[in-house]
Specification:
The protein is of the alpha+beta class and 322 residues long. Helix content is 25%, strand content 12%. It contains seven helices and ten strands. The strands form three sheets. Strands 8-5-6-9-10 form a five-stranded mixed beta sheet.
Length: 322
Amino acid sequence: MRIQSQRRAFTLVELLVVIAIIGILVGLLLPAVQAAREAARRMQCSNNLKQIGLAVHNYESAYKKFPPGNITDGPCCGTPSHTAWSVAILPFIEQANLDATYNHSLPLEHPDNAFLREQNLATYNCPSDPVAGQLLEPASGPRNGQRWRTSSYRGMGGVAWAPAGQYAYRRQWDSSDILNSECPVDRKGIFHWTGRINGQVNKFSSEKFGTISDGTSNTLMVGEYMTMTTPRRTTFWAYSYTSFVLSCMTPESRTLIPDYSLCAAQGDSNPCKRAFGAFHPGNLINFVRCDGSVNPLSPTLDMKVYWALSTIAGGEAEVESF
């Protein structure tokens, strides 16, 4: 007589328990995986800024001055634009061939410079920036329906200001506004406008190491800007018109969040066009300073500290690194 062995299958309850356990394990592992991915993205972003800082130093070594923040010929706004710090350092980030395609005698808006402005450069893209690397038409300026490549890093122009009778931080360092006799010289940053208007000589020429009297370790050079809303207000690395490759310090915390629309809803929109912000944990914003070091700043940092870090010769006391 043969005895048949019976195979016992999983019951529905047991199967549901196994699925539940797998779900719990996945739920526990997913945040760790996401955190690891963001750590890798943040490290890559920091490395990009280190490369940018080194490139700026090499430019200064070659030309004995820092690159201009941006150049436009004529009064604000809508005048054709020329080079900017991010265009000027192309040969120093292994992009000499791309730089060779740039017709320096023509504005960046000219069709002959379309190839340059449409290039996607990994060095200028933070992996945490969902908009970086896209072809979009900037929100303002002489873009004439053209598309430009988005990016993640902006130069520090200085501390915003305004003539008497205007909102205190209405004027910035990215246009001929700075030729106004009321522009406070002690608020300038390392990168600012150096163009001309009606043949008038610009009293704000490109900076040198010797003009950074506040100390290179106490002076911000380039930082992150990305936005959750209004992608056409993000950073465009080859668009030197006013605010798209430069930002300025405004002592209002709303200008340190990665959300243009939320910032603009809280007051004058001009500072929001020149904001800094990032999507790293805690919304920490990576900056490379003039000594080449890279450090994150919190959007909740003391505004007096932020002000001091943003100028090259404001005469402020040394500030603590973050």
